[in-house]
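testing teh design pipeline on a random one, pls ignore if ur not involved
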């Protein structure tokens, strides 16, 4: 069980005694009953239940065994009401209290080659998400709005990793054709008391009307938007710039090879910084070149820092590498 799970213990009320202890208690109750209702036979019954070879003693032992077994079975059923002890369908019923459902990892397809069996989320994974539910982003908060603007109501496959001490990483994986897969960033800004603007940045270009409408409809669900909030969904803009560098071939390598490698590295750099509130500085561009063991270079463009904001992101429109 994961280290961040509660350490459950069985409530005292549900602790069933062992057979020997239960038998002694059962005998004491029986003798108390005889004493109160048939005192003349008290000694006879007392002697009979102590004679383990006698039929009467075996009958008492059998009754005690059955009664104790029923108590244990009832306790097992009762413990299914506690998330830490629930399994299978009972765990499904318990997590439903928080609106959670067991995930389908793989749909059944018996016509596939080879056939695919139905694979469901494990009890441990489902229980992990149940315990993490209290830490989820609350509707109506800035981060809550940003989170929902990114998911657009699509249902992801959720995995949890706590292999690194002190960290719990929750991963949401969406279908590639979903609206959530189109959203790269979302920033929520309070522009006035109770009035918020959410700026949407897609992975490619500027958010179109269809994407903005999908986000707007989802954000305005009653279970997400606070009734007193006015929320406006807007497209984040792009701040276009180009990367242009001159590099001295101090490595005496094939210039085309150097050019190709730098273009790949700079493209990855530009993509990384295509985020709202990110800043692209000339010295950062130069750092990409320097990291390839090319200390002699000139950054022609950008000549100054390109600063994004909540409503905008730096967007590289071209990369030029000159090797001299």
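output:
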């Amino acid at each position: 069980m994961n280290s961040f799970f509660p350490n459950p213990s069985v409530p005292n009320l549900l602790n069933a005694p062992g057979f020997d202890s239960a038998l002694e208690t059962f005998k004491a109750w029986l003798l108390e009953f005889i004493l109160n209702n048939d005192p003349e036979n008290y000694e006879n019954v007392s002697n009979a239940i102590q004679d383990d070879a006698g039929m009467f003693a075996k009958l008492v032992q059998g009754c005690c065994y059955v009664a104790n077994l029923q108590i244990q079975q009832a306790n097992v059923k009762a413990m299914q009401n506690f998330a830490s002890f629930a399994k299978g369908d009972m765990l499904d019923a318990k997590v439903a209290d928080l609106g959670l459902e067991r995930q389908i990892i793989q749909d059944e397809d018996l016509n596939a080659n080879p056939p695919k069996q139905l694979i469901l989320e494990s009890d441990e994974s489902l229980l992990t998400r149940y315990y993490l539910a209290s830490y989820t982003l609350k509707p109506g908060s800035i981060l809550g709005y940003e989170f929902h603007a990114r998911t657009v109501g699509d249902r992801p496959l959720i995995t949890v990793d706590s292999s690194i001490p002190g960290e719990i990483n929750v991963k949401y994986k969406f279908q590639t054709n979903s609206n959530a897969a189109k959203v790269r960033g979302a920033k929520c800004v309070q522009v006035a008391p109770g009035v918020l603007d959410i700026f949407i940045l897609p992975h490619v270009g500027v958010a179109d009307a269809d994407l903005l409408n999908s986000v707007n409809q989802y954000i305005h669900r009653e279970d997400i938007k606070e009734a007193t909030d006015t929320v406006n969904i807007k497209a984040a803009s792009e701040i276009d710039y180009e990367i242009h560098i001159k590099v001295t071939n101090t490595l005496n390598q094939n210039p085309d090879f150097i050019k190709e490698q730098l273009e790949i590295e700079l493209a990855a750099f530009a993509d990384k910084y295509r985020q709202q509130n990110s800043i692209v500085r000339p010295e950062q561009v130069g750092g990409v070149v320097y990291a390839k063991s090319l200390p002699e270079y000139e950054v022609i463009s950008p000549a100054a820092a390109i600063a994004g904001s909540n409503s905008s992101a730096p967007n590289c429109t071209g990369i030029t590498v000159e090797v001299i």
